[in-house]
Amino acid sequence: MDMKFMPEPYKVKMVEPLRILPKEERIEAIKKAGYNTFLLNSRDVYIDLLTDSGTNAMSDRQWAGLMMGDEAYAGSENWFHLQSTVQEIMGFKHVVPTHQGRGAENLLSQILVKPGSYVPGNMYFTTTRAHQELNGGTFVDVINDDAHISDNPDVLFKGNIDLKKYEDLINKVGAENIPYICVGVTVNLAGGQPVSMKNLREVYELSKKHGIRVMFDCTRYVENAYFIKAREEGYKDKTIAEIVKEMFSYADGATMSGKKDGIVNIGGFLAMNEEELYSKATALVVVYEGMPSYGGMTGRDMEAFAIGLKEALDYNYIKHRVEQVEYLGNKLSEAGIPIVRPVGGHAVFLDARAFLPHIPQEQYPAQVLAAEIYIESGVRTMERGNVSAGRTKEGKEYFPKLELVRLTLPRRVYSYAHLDFVAEAIIRTFKRRDEIKGLKFIYEPPVLRFFTGRFEHVE
């Protein structure tokens, strides 16, 4: 039988009712939220594609694991299970638990970044760059140029580091001023784009030549491994676990938000091989997170996290996960909706500048589009453009080349029927795009403005 898509590799055991507000109430809700989808109440959202962070559906084994929570303040059995699982899957010697990924970013930046530091990476991520800058560092984008082109379907590893850009930076500022290179696997703001194994290997070799640490942002590393298996020569017969192990052999450490490929609602860690870095991290984690044996997580959360890390390596799980995203992307692309191509691993990204060409970037077309999709359908999405990019230290807006709206699929949550509804809503929004107006700030916080900023329409 010729099937359009792979059915869900699970069956439904519990349901959570959904409701959709009448359009008049949606208009009032988004206005009250300052046209910021982050400020909408969850009860006013029909299908929630804001993020895949902590919004996953846990398995029956993970739920069973919650009942095995050892809530000791120190030395929890669940911590030892989580620690050994990370060591087994990734191969790092040391693990420091944190409440989520940005807790790990904070520890790493406080320990290694100082005024005058430069931190290269394959495109910024919002919280990562914020921690680096708050500690006096400067982020430098060394991703390949193809990553900044939204519709470029033939480039299969748009997350790759440009080795020449990286080496030019080393020669310009000196390796001693580069505490580490941050390699995202996958690259969120490029559209969930993967990094090839070849590139990871080359980046590691160049870094070792100059004595620079390689630290992964491995929040979605299983998705990256799947793309390597599907797209890179020599890996189609390897298991996801084997590919993951090789990936991490080209890193000195990693930060992770367990709320993504850990398939849990909370949790994260900082992992490393270096003894001195581990010693400093365990001292600092007590100040910001908790004891080095829980780091802000409960015992039950650590147990679910450990189980989720292993479940994520299942090929049927990750194949379905990525194919769901691809299904939505293809449906939109076939309807003429401008999206980032190839479609990434965790989300479909709409090209807001191409969607709303009449709205200048200083009027935040991605922010506008996310609000309009909610008005049209009750579907919540997220801006990933000029608002997320923020401002330079001098107060000027960044104006990134990619002005995107992210449609992020939580793991094991929505069906293909939900995705059909989302696609149809966006197509309807596209048909009335000429009537959509720009936005301006009425409240702009100094850091990470996309979370709590408020807007009104430009007349």
TrEMBL record:
Swiss-Prot/TrEMBL cofactor(s) = pyridoxal 5'-phosphate
Assembly and interactions?
Homotetramer.
Source organism, top-level taxon: Bacteria
Segments forming domain Aromatic amino acid beta-eliminating lyase/threonine aldolase: 48-424
List UniProt keywords, sorted A-Z. Answer: Lyase, Pyridoxal phosphate
Q: Which family does it belong to?
A: Belongs to the beta-eliminating lyase family.
Q: What is its EC number?
A: 4.1.99.2
Q: Which reaction does it catalyse?
A: L-tyrosine + H2O = phenol + pyruvate + NH4(+)
**Organism the protein comes from:** Tissierella simiarum
Give the enzyme class: lyase
Q: Which residues carry this modification: N6-(pyridoxal phosphate)lysine?
A: 260
> What GO molecular function annotations does the UniProt record carry, in alphabetical order?
tyrosine phenol-lyase activity
Protein's UniProt keywords contain Calcium = no
> What is the protein's given name?
Tyrosine phenol-lyase
